[in-house]
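Sample entry (386 residues):
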Amino acid sequence: MRSRIISFLFIISSLNCFSDEAEIFLNKEIISKQLNYLYDKIKARKNIPAFETTFLKLRKNFGFNGSVLISVNDQIIYKGAFGYANLESKDTLTTSSIYQLASVSKQFTSAAIILLEEKGLLEFSDLVTRFYPKFPYKNIKIQDLLAHRSGLPDYRWFVDPIWPDKEKPLSNQKMMKLLEKHAPDLYFQPDTRHSYSNTGYAVLSAIVENITKMRFSNFMKLAFFDPLGMKNTSIYSKCEKAIQPGNLTGYERNGRWKAPNDCFNGVTGDKNVFSTVEDLFLWDQALYSGKIVALKNIEKAYIPANPELKGWRNYGYGWRINQSNPNKKIVYHTGWWRGYRTYFLRNLSDHSSIIILSNTVNYSLNSLQSLYSLVIEGDLDSLSVD
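Predicted structure, serialized as tokens:
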């Protein structure tokens, strides 16, 4: 197919005679770009039946229940939904269904911090104590939080025994006060190694609220979601609303029981962005455009910040990063929280992406090798699961 396209374009271009060498070069460049785009589009379209087959198999073999969107060269080439929003009522899922993004939410928190840095309201090297003077850990910097190098203990474990009413939501600001009051031991000294930290991103959300004097949910709506037309995206906190967005039920243990909406769903930053695969594609495109955050600044999120982590395991600011292939800059994040499994992979080299959102926790998203091969050509190592 590609050879026929090349021959056709060569014949067409040979019919034209240009006297200016610069014009010849320019037209060759345009033709080359058009050819590459056309070839990739045809190749991607041919894979659509394979995409469908992949997810039907995942549903049959592992109980996949969710929505999918795949893009290549900034174009959506496949989207679909499989299964039910509620397993009892059998409400059908769609590509407009709204899911809890779990840890895929962290990239939004990172973008908020990068935007505030761009506006001169903070620096990555700032200590947390600049914004919370009573914060008991005096040498933790914002960049340590972003890259999971703070050593902070998981807020869920130290809060659990001192927060008896699990129906009463915990806010980010209350979490900060509990850190100040109890000062649980760090896992390690800041910036000595990497350890994935939900607490770090909850602290980042609190810092955004401190700087903007707004709820994190309101700031993200005004700064990102509304300007980008992400009409089905919001940040949920049980401190603000009792009911989660959308009509989905999250299920644990392959649908055997419904996940609770407990006190920890009051905390934002580490989770609790709710969105759709279609809105996430808008977000994907916005990250390439520099519409909200300058491109040179958002690219800081894709710089590996943990020298001891190799291959697929490195982490920047809100994104895991592939270092195994220098010709393919791939960033990704997975998520797992209260009945939801999520997955967002972006190949920055060719602007392809895989977005998968599920409201049933099972092993279906652990078997994506065939999908990788169809979209980005080549097997990938196993991904870190958060």
